[in-house]
Design a protein that fits this description.
The complex is a heterodimer of chains A (445) and B (440). Chain A is α/β, with parallel strands linked by helices and 445 residues long. Chain A has three domains: 96 residues, Fumarate Reductase Iron-sulfur Protein, Chain B, domain 2 (Orthogonal Bundle), CATH 1.10.1060; 159 residues, FAD/NAD(P)-binding domain, CATH 3.50.50; 137 residues, FAD/NAD(P)-binding domain. In chain A, 35% of the residues lie in helices and 17% in strands. Chain A contains 17 helices and 15 strands. In chain A, helix 10 packs parallel to helix 17 and helix 14 crosses helix 15. Chain A is globular, with a radius of gyration of 23 Å. Chain B has two domains: 320 residues, Alpha-Beta Barrel (TIM Barrel), CATH 3.20.20.70; 111 residues, 2-Layer Sandwich (Alpha-Beta Plaits). In chain B, 43% of the residues are buried. The chains are: A alpha/beta (445), B alpha/beta (440). Chains A and B meet through helix 2 and helix 8 of A and helix 11 of B.
């Protein structure tokens, strides 16, 4: 008998092949030309636009929308890419509902913002299918090492290359893109877009990428400092936080990031096994991505449990609604006490929490949820930061120029202080660090 | 419930909304549908003289200008007068008029500027039972190259002459349709009046090129790589038409001359505005060509509601109501002081008022760090630009400053008395203005 949603345990092929295709198709289909014109018409071309301020990369949104509305989408793409070279991915994964679209005056006026994210995708998709819009400045003779081919590293490398520098990127994995490739829900960026974007970005030239090259034994920061004129670290957050609940070492209690990566890399979603009863612990985007995808893979019951209230959840309102609309149940104000089961997880026991004088405390009221698969999504941690660099609050502290405590080393993205652990903030930090490095090297020479 | 029935120069119709002479009124099928939809009358598309039918281009006849959301705000056409045989049109006019005796049926005419040509066509039109004729002295394209349409309308003597022939050889009421492609609309109107016209209708379309194809470098609409100017109409021309209607309505020579208002009328409000400025009824074309005949339902219900809300019971109560208030600039009260006021509850903080005022006007709007926009009364000249660029209706308004208060911009006390330019101390001609003809 074939598997279905009620098949117990963790198993694959719970759904029909067509269900998988539907479930993992593009979350927002691309706008057609007509849809883009209609959407662009709604922009008021605000003065000193709030959307622009809300964008971590400060894209001139009113300008690019006006360019779309006058039939020059490539010019719109240039406006976007000149601020954010990963504008294509950001158009897909940015939580626009808490950034540009949240402050759109049409949100104020009508509760319906201009579709900024989708318009950005319209412009960037068009340009990316044609060409790379930038060229390099004459060779500066300077060499920079960028560690990490995620959003921060790629943005930094691209801007450095534009400025005529020669860049080598070292990445621990076999593919570039960082979290864009490994860490986001599959339906947010389909058809291998992350790899397409990396290739398109690198086509500016002057950037060499060395994959399977983690910082560590064979690649020391001292060697990089000696061999290159400057170093940028965009190494992300490689570790994950522990649950600190009894029984978390049982089988089938796994990190959500691992599960997300598995889904993201699968060529056939039917082959990805998922539990019948899935419990996701956490309240961020990772938790939502894990919960929603569990449901889309055919899990019968998926429950997301967050220890604080809805207002404190870092996943946006839109993400929470996406989760509930797909059938995920969200329980607020409850913390895991123990995972039960004989060898493998069978259930998770939770206690409701209460804020006592600013301290989150478990109450005596407990409940149990059946769980044959438990995903931990309670935050990532910095792992493998080079010795000798100061750390602060588990991150690499940087100044406003992106410089670390070592003036020849810059850092950006999730591994560095500042930013909101978003692709778009990583891009801004990588870009700005590149400008800082450029100034540093130019002044020097 | 207000009575919308219309009596325009003795021609009665269930309402004052007529379809103008244009493609929608070119044949029986359309006109019957128009009457069924609720239109009060039609001006049948212009008939030419007997003979080989007119030939039209076989490529695009129309071009357009769009507002946001591809809303058509201006339409241009290079279509000529009817290209169907005269006898067929006459048969159809007769049949429709017979079946719709209570609807107005006007026939538009354009024949060469020769007495015999008019003498020939007038009796055959009269025989259809039509209620009146409209002389097409307005079409600016094609026919004008052959000495007809606007070519006649641009020469007051020709207007007077042809109008006189029509009155001489026909008992039908004569409406003279005027071209706006002239310098002073009062001249052709006066000529029509001298010729004995029962009314004028205006405006016909405006010379126009709507766009240029930037791949082929051809004006649009393009026929095989070339374009010719056409006639512009639709919402975009309404302000031009309103002014011309008002010019005739307030001109002493033409005062009381009935006017059929035409030009971008798209809804009941536009229609009421034309009537307030002196039009006895209105004619519509582009709105029907854009949305279909059904729009007349909104015009009827809208005008009814408006009149009911103001206790008006019949159309004549609106006609001409705004004419006494249409003045020359020199008549305007220079002691009237207003200031812009922003309703902070309605403001969505788009900042367009600020950009407009700061960049292009008087730097009279301030912007705070947290995007609060305020009017600086000591700079505001009440130009109204902020009101116009604000996307939210009623968010910014112009408030009159009470007499006795101080205008912060000039430091002067606002005076209660009316005072205009003619008596202003800065006027170099001083009292001279008082003897200008219009002020007499």
């Amino acid at each position: 008998m074939p598997n279905d949603m009620q098949t117990s345990g963790i198993t694959d092929h719970r759904l029909s092949p067509s269900d998988y295709v539907d479930n993992f198709s593009d979350l927002h289909a691309p706008l057609s030309d007509h849809e883009a014109l209609v959407a662009a018409d709604r922009c008021y071309f605000c003065h000193d636009a709030p959307c622009m301020d809300a964008c971590p990369t400060t894209i001139d949104i009113p300008l690019f929308i006006r360019q779309i509305s006058t039939g020059t989408a490539d010019a719109a793409a240039n406006t976007i890419f000149s601020q954010n070279i990963l504008g294509g991915m950001c158009a897909r994964v940015c939580p626009t509902e808490t950034l540009c679209e949240e402050v759109c005056v049409r949100e104020t006026a009508e509760g319906k913002p201009v579709l900024i994210g989708q318009l950005q995708r319209y412009a960037t998709d068009g340009m990316m299918a044609k060409a790379h819009p930038f060229t390099r400045a004459p060779d500066s003779g300077k060499k920079i090492a960028v560690v990490g081919a995620g959003p921060a590293g790629l943005a930094c490398a691209h801007r450095l290359a534009m400025n005529g520098h020669t860049v080598t990127i070292f990445d621990a994995r076999a593919k570039g893109g960082g979290l864009n490739e490994f860490g986001i829900a599959a339906y947010k960026s389909v058809d291998g877009f992350a790899q397409t974007e990396v290739e398109w970005l690198l086509s500016i030239g002057g950037i060499d990428v060395k994959y399977d090259s983690p910082l560590g034994n064979d690649l020391s920061i001292d060697t990089l400092k000696a061999d290159y004129d400057a170093v940028f670290l965009g190494i992300g957050l490689g570790g994950v936080n522990a649950l600190r609940a009894e029984g978390e070492d049982k089988d089938n209690v796994v990190d959500a990031v691992e599960f997300i990566e598995g889904v993201r890399q699968a060529s056939d979603m039917g082959t990805v096994a998922v539990g019948r009863h899935v419990v996701v612990i956490g309240g961020g985007m990772t938790a939502v991505d894990a919960a929603v995808q569990s449901k889309l893979l055919g899990a019968d019951e998926v429950t997301m449990v967050y220890r604080r209230g809805k207002d404190r959840m870092s996943a946006s309102e839109f993400e929470q609604e996406l989760a509930t609309s797909k059938g995920v149940r969200i329980i607020y104000n409850a913390a895991p006490v123990r995972v039960t089961g004989n060898g493998a997880a069978q259930a998770v026991e939770f206690a409701y929490t209460k804020d006592v004088n600013g301290k989150l405390t478990n109450t005596n009221e407990v409940f149990t949820i059946a769980a044959d698969q438990v995903f931990k999504a309670i935050g990532q941690t910095l792992d493998g930061a080079p010795d000798g660099l100061e750390l602060m609050g588990g991150k690499i502290p940087v100044n406003e120029l992106g410089q670390t405590s070592d003036p020849a080393i810059w850092a950006g993205g999730d591994c560095a202080t500042g930013g909101d652990d978003l692709t778009v903030t990583a891009v801004a930090e990588g870009r700005d660090a590149a400008e800082s490095i450029n100034n540093y090297l130019t002044a020097e020479g | 419930m207000a009575d919308l029935t219309s009596n325009f120069i003795g021609i009665k119709s269930p309402n004052p909304f007529w379809l103008a002479s244009a493609p929608p009124t070119d044949k029986e099928y359309n006109v019957r549908r128009a009457f069924e939809a609720g239109w009060g009358g039609v001006v049948w598309k212009t008939l030419g003289e007997e003979g080989p039918p007119i030939v039209n281009v076989n490529g695009p006849r129309y071009g357009a200008i769009y507002g946001g959301d591809r809303k058509l705000i201006g339409l241009n056409n290079i279509e000529l007068i009817t290209d169907r045989p005269l006898q067929q049109n006459l048969r159809e006019i007769k049949a429709v008029k017979r079946d719709y005796p209570n609807h107005a049926m006007i026939v538009s005419l354009m024949v060469p500027c020769e007495e015999e040509a008019w003498k020939a066509i007038l009796p055959v039109v009269e025989e259809t039972g039509a209620d009146g004729i409209e002389l097409n002295f307005g079409c600016p394209h094609g026919m004008a190259e052959r000495g007809m349409g606007a070519a006649v309308g641009q020469v007051p003597e020709y207007i007077e002459m042809v109008t006189r022939w029509c009155k001489q050889y026909s008992r039908m009421p004569v409406i003279v349709k005027l071209t706006p492609n002239i310098t002073d609309i009062r001249m052709p109107a006066e000529a029509a009046m001298r010729g004995g016209a029962d009314a004028v209708s205006l405006i016909n379309t405006i010379n126009s090129i709507t766009s240029v194809n930037l791949d082929t470098f051809a004006p649009e609409p393009t026929i095989d790589g070339w374009g010719a100017h056409g006639g512009y109409c639709g919402p975009a021309v309404k302000p031009i038409a309103l002014n011309m209607v008002a010019e005739i309505a307030r001109n002493a020579e033409t005062a009381g001359l009935p006017i059929s208002g035409i030009g971008g009328i798209s809804n009941w409000r536009d229609a009421a505005e034309f009537m307030a400025l002196g039009a006895g009824n209105v004619q519509v074309c582009t709105a029907a060509m854009t949305y279909g005949f059904k729009i007349v339902q909104e015009m009827i219900s809208g005008l009814s509601q408006y009149m009911d809300e103001r206790g008006m019971t019949s159309i004549p109560e609106i006609v001409g109501r705004a004419v006494p208030n249409a003045k020359d600039w020199q008549d305007l009260n220079l002691n009237y002081i207003a200031k812009a006021k922003i309703d902070q509850d309605l403001c969505i903080a788009c900042g367009r008022c600020f950009a407009a005022c700061e960049d292009t006007s008087h730097q009279a709007i301030s912007m705070s760090e947290d995007r609060v926009f305020k009017v600086e009364n000591d700079e505001c000249v009440a130009c109204n630009l902020c009101v116009l660029v604000c996307p939210v209706e009623n968010c910014i308004s112009m408030e009159q400053q009470a007499a006795g208060t101080v205008d912060e911009r000039t430091g002067k006390v606002v005076e209660a008395e009316y005072a205009n330019w003619t008596t202003h101390p800065n006027n170099p001609t001083g009292a001279m203005c008082n003897v200008m003809p219009d002020a007499e």
